[in-house]
Amino acid sequence: MIVLIGVGHVFNIHDRVRQAIINSEPEIVCVELDPARAEGLLHPDRRQGAAGKNLPAVYQMLAIFQRIVAGKFESEPGMEMVTAIQTARELNAKLEFIDIDAVTVAERIWREMSFVERMKLIGGLFFGIFLPKKKIEKTIDEFNEKESDVIEEFGKEFPTIKKILIDDRNDYMAWRISMVAKEYTDIVCVVGEGHIEGISKQLSCRNLPHRIVRLKDLLTSTNAEYSWSWAW
């Protein structure tokens, strides 16, 4: 069985992600990372220096924004992915990084965005930094309630970003998961909540049954209780 676990990169949900993985007893854990980003999360000290200065502007802006928002929730961005990696190793499960190279994605976004999209993105990130925690939580609640509507509206405002950052990566990660499913039966995939619907649809088209643990369940459930939904 394939289990999709939806996470948020700025929340302190490490223990719940760990327990959800353990409960699934996976042979292999797939993580929404590329090898280079995984290395950077596991060894933050190695991200410093000239390499960091050469990262695309949009990559650096998003990273700064994530760090600031994560600070409001007393967390570090990407720690749920580190937890997934550590839990896979703890269980002696195989580990697979299923995402497209993050720097390549960022370079493509910046290159293909229109001037208007760039200005909207910069403005949105700037003002987003000053949003209070309660406002961010309200926005997240709205996303959880009407995910498809929110993503559709996002696509209208930022069509290039939606295609490259969400749609294309959904297609790629779903394909990678389908390849893993040819070799393994019990699979856990830890991906951002915004990718869950897209990946689920792709897996259903491939006739790959799967279960879903939503981010809202991780945020509200105890370590022992999770709400599962089925998809075919």
- Percent strand equals 5-15%
User: Looking at the chains present, what oligomeric state does this protein adopt?
Assistant: single chain
> How many domains is the backbone divided into?
1
Provide mean pLDDT, rounded.
79
Task: Determine Rg (CA atoms, Å).
Answer: 17 Å
By DSSP, the count of extended strands is 6
Percent of residues in helices comes to 55-70%
Q: What's the helix-strand series? A: EHEHHHHEHHHHHEHEHE
Specify the structural class. alpha/beta
Commentary on this structure:
- It is a single chain.
- This protein is of the alpha/beta class.
- It has twelve helices and six strands.
- Strands 3-2-4-1-5-6 form a six-stranded mixed β-sheet, sandwiched between helices.
- It has one domain (2-231).
- The longest helix has 23 residues, at 159-181.
- The protein is globular and about 45 Å long.
- Residues 48-53 and 223-232 have low confidence and may be disordered.
Question: Can you give me a brief rundown of this structure?
Answer:
The protein contains twelve helices and six strands.
Please describe the structure with a list of short key phrases separated by commas or semicolons.
6 strands; alpha/beta; single chain; six-stranded mixed sheet; 232 residues
SSE layout and pairing:
Elements (H helix, E strand, L loop, with lengths): L1 E6 L6 H11 L3 E4 L3 H8 L7 H4 L3 H16 L6 H12 L3 E4 L4 H11 L2 H15 L3 H13 L1 H11 L1 H23 L5 E6 H13 L4 E4 L1 H6 L7 E4 L1
Parallel strand pairs: 1-4, 1-5, 2-3, 2-4
Antiparallel strand pairs: 5-6
Helix pairs in contact: 1-5, 4-7, 6-10, 8-9, 9-10, 10-11
